[in-house]
Amino acid sequence: MLIAQDLVGFFQFSLLYLTVSIPLVLAYRVTKVINFTVANYITYGAYTAVLLDYYMRSSFGHNSLLLTVLLSFMLTGSIAVLSNLAVFKPLTEMRVKGDVLMIASMGLWIVLKYVLYIVSDIASSACRTNLVSYSQIHYDDISLLTARTGLVGVQQSLVVFPLLALTSMAILYLVLNATRVGRAVLAVADNSLLASLSGIAVGRVVNLTWFLTAGLISLAGVMWTTYSGAITPEVGDSLILQVFTIAFIGGLASLTRTAAGALLISGVENFGTDLLSTYLGLPTSIKPMLTFIVLLATLIASPPLGVAGGVPYRFTRGVRR
């Protein structure tokens, strides 16, 4: 039974981490910002679902995952573009270093987080409902889907997680590989100066990247609403350690290695925690510690970030000397 639970947890969290970490790495390759507001993208996706669920149920008696996903994508993507125009673009034009951009993203992370707290507090007072800690959401269109496919009784999270994760990956793959816009994004990611010289509007590509990646990351927040028993403005913060560990494992460069990192961290959290708890009697609360161990090992073994450099790089560099 324990193994079955671990497998389910591994499956769900692998999909959740993939939905966040791959767009995050793509965004870094284009914008060169180590972006802590990824936590806000997750949370704003979840709270789009919360507010829409309350409104639709009180007004119409039902809700919709499809409408939630569309609104979450549009809202969060727009917030990311506005954040770029207001904060990151001016700093980039000033030619500040990457660490300054990272610190700016940390400040913006806190600002956006407490803006959401303010909005949810005001909405809670107006609606006379606790929106700061909202219960798990069940989507009526997913209930209809499970009824028609003979999956009645299956947890909605087991349907929504793969549905949204695969949709996100499919959108990203098609955009990058089957459209001119996607090829422009990849060109800027590889060499923004060369892309500019070849006639690509780099500024537009950067804005599009912010919009696309933030919108896709927000789907993780929607996924979370079908899993967690309490949805709060801390949703994204609770996932940011794992997400950045995965991104660093991928060297903030390789989407394939990032995907492998998502599987690794999910496996460590689910199987590693239970093994240590079962055989050594350690509490399951050590889960964040295991993630930190993986993060530190990655940073020490693979300079500067992730396996894009790695132990083989260090070894060969020493030999060449």
Description of the molecule:
The protein is built from 13 helices and no strands. With 321 residues, it is an all-alpha fold. The chain folds into 2 domains: 21-233, no CATH class; 234-307, no CATH class. Residues 304-321 have low confidence and may be disordered. This is Inner-membrane translocator. Keywords: Amino-acid transport, Cell membrane, Membrane, Transmembrane, Transmembrane helix, Transport. It comes from Thermogladius calderae (strain DSM 22663 / VKM B-2946 / 1633).
Distance between the amino and carboxyl termini: 54 Å
Q: Which class of secondary structure composition applies to the elements?
A: mainly alpha
DSSP strand (E) fraction? Answer: under 5%
Stretches where pLDDT falls below 50 for ≥5 residues? Answer: 304-321
Shape, please?
globular
Element string (H = helix, E = strand): HHHHHHHHHHHHH
Overall number of domains: 2
Q: In total, how many beta strands?
A: 0
Oligomer: single chain
What's the topology here?
Blueprint: H1 2-31, H2 38-59, H3 65-93, H4 98-127, H5 140-148, H6 156-178, H7 180-190, H8 192-197, H9 202-224, H10 240-249, H11 255-280, H12 287-301, H13 310-320
Helix pairs in contact: 1-6, 1-7, 1-9, 1-10, 1-11, 2-3, 2-4, 2-9, 3-4, 3-9, 6-7, 6-9, 7-9, 10-11, 10-12, 11-12
Q: Descriptors for this entry?
A:
single chain, 321 residues, mainly alpha, 2 domains, 76% helix, globular, disordered C terminus, transmembrane transporter activity, Inner-membrane translocator, transmembrane
Summarize this, please?
This protein has helices spanning 2-31, 38-59, 65-93, 98-127, 140-148, 156-178, 180-190, 192-197, 202-224, 240-249, 255-280, 287-301, 310-320.
